[in-house]
Amino acid sequence: MAYFTQQLINAITLGAIYGLIAIGYTMVYGIIGMINFAHGEVFMIGAFISLIGFMICSMLGIGSAPVAIVLVLLISMAFSSVYGWAIERTAYRPLRGSFRLAPLISAIGVSIALQNYVQLVQGARPKPGGQIVSGGFNLFSLDGFDVRISWLQIIIVLVTVVLMGGFTWLIAKTSLGRRQRACEQDMKMAALLGVDVDRTISLTFVLGAALAAVAGMLFLMYYGLIDFFIGFLAGIKAFTAAVLGGIGSLPGAMLGGLLIGLIEVFWAGYFSSEYKDVAAFSILVLVLIFRPTGLLGKPEIEKV
Amino acid sequence: MVDPRLLKMLKDAALTALVAAALGIFIVGFRTVDVGSRAGLSFQYEFVDLAVALVIIFFGRLGLQMAAMGLRWPAIALGIVMIAAGASPMQLPSGFLHWFVALGGVLLVIRAVWPWADQAIHAAARTPTGRIVNTIGTQWLGWVLLGIAIVMPFTPFADQKTMDLGVLILTYVMLGWGLNIVVGLAGLLDLGYVAFYAVGAYAYALLSTQHGLGFWAVLPLAGMFSASFGILLGFPVLRLRGDYLAIVTLGFGEIIRLVLLNWVDFTNGPAGIGTIPGPTLFGAVFAETAPEGKQTVSEMLGIPFHGIHRLIFLYYIILLLALITNLFTQRMRRLPVGRAWEALREDETACKALGINPTNTKLTAFAVGAMFAGFAGSFFAAKQRFISPESFTFIESAIILAIVVLGGMGSQIGVVLAAVLLIGLPEWFRELGNYRMLAFGLAMVLIMVFRPRGLIGHREPSIRLHPVGSGGSG
Question: Membrane-crossing residues (chain B) (predicted)?
Answer without folding.
Answer: 12-33, 45-64, 71-90, 96-114, 135-155, 167-186, 191-207, 213-237, 244-264, 311-329, 363-382, 394-425, 437-456
